[in-house]
Design goal:
single chain, alpha/beta, six-stranded mixed sheet, four-stranded antiparallel sheet, 11 helices, 14 strands, binds adenosine-5'-triphosphate, P-loop_NTPase, ATP binding
């Protein structure tokens, strides 16, 4: 399967943080979700992909080319949604679009107008008067209006109401189904990804914990529940982490067969992405 993004052994250090020799693949034609707790390194990774900051070491290729030496050509083919993006707050939506359009060879004004209508955005409204959610919609309309093959989004669902969040997920799904785009996006709202992601990359403390298909993750990780008495007989190193509660314990494992062999009476349940993130962060 073809990779549209390949990150190899990339590091970036700040005073109190290190993105540590990360490897990451984004598959062509699929949705990859990028999850991790606050401060894990998601935005730093996305900024490195977009060549907005300089890496200390490693290689990043996008569409098969180095992302620094082919920066301009690569950015023509990417739709980027980012909180602190490069728009003019004192200008209206339509004036912003007029300034952005010349940067893209394939800018499609009709498509942009269609997205404004679909997102209920008035072209005359100044950016400084838009709510956070409306700004995200504008940013998204821009990212989708130059026929990008790859969408990279940092927290696109943050600040959106549940109705538009659902609509955004539908749009992403359409882009994938009808136009075979590739999508990479970070989010805290893991339930969004439970619905639509094909692959998940999980980062914690600047290290990639896993980068796998949803199916593999669902097969690998399970919640284990049992009584205090069972816990006392168990090898707790089989858990990513666990917590005691009034009834006994609950933990996350990726060593299910060993857990069942050592404690046949435990209760096994599927783990969702939030569980996986939670127990890894407690480690
Ligand atoms: N320019 C910078 N100078 C120093 N430290 C930085 C800088 N940018 C980010 N950091 C630090 O790097 C770490 C990772 O930040 P990053 O924004 O990548 O995390 P994140 O996973 O996107 O978090 P969140 O989910 O809270 O947005 C944090 O500890 C942050 O304070």
């Amino acid at each position: 399967m073809e990779n549209i993004i390949e990150v190899r052994q990339v590091s970036k250090s700040y005073t109190d943080f290190k993105l540590d020799q990360i490897d990451l693949d984004v598959k062509k034609g699929f949705i990859t979700g990028f999850i991790g707790p606050n401060g894990a390194g998601k935005t730093t990774t996305i900024k490195l992909l977009m060549n907005l900051i300089k890496k200390d070491a490693g290689e990043i290729t996008i569409f098969g080319s180095d992302n620094v030496s082919h920066d301009k050509a690569i950015k023509q083919r990417i739709g980027f949604v980012y909180d602190e993006c490069c728009f003019f707050d004192h200008l209206s939506i339509e004036k912003n679009a007029r300034l952005i359009a010349p940067f893209y060879q394939d800018w499609d004004q009709q498509l942009f107008n269609d997205y404004l209508k679909r997102f209920h955005l008035s072209p005359k409204k100044k950016l400084k008067n838009l709510s956070k959610g409306m700004k995200t919609k504008f940013s998204l309309a821009t990212a989708l209006s130059h026929h990008a093959e790859l969408l990279i989004m940092d927290e696109p669902t943050a600040g959106l109401d549940p109705i538009f969040r659902r609509e955004l997920l539908d749009i992403l799904y359409e882009l994938l189904e009808d136009e075979k785009k590739s999508i990479f996006f970070s989010t805290h709202i893991t339930s969004d990804l439970d619905k639509i992601a094909d692959y998940i990359t999980f980062i914690n403390n600047g290290k990639i914990i896993f980068s796998s298909s949803m199916n593999t993750i669902q097969e690998s990780y399970k919640l284990v529940k049992g009584t205090k008495e069972i816990l006392e007989t168990m090898d707790t190193s089989l858990f990513i982490s666990y917590q005691r509660n009034n009834f006994g314990f609950q933990g996350l494992t990726n060593k299910l067969s060993e857990v069942v062999a050592s404690a046949p009476n435990v209760l096994i349940e599927p783990a969702n992405l939030e569980d996986i993130m939670f127990y890894h962060a407690r480690q």
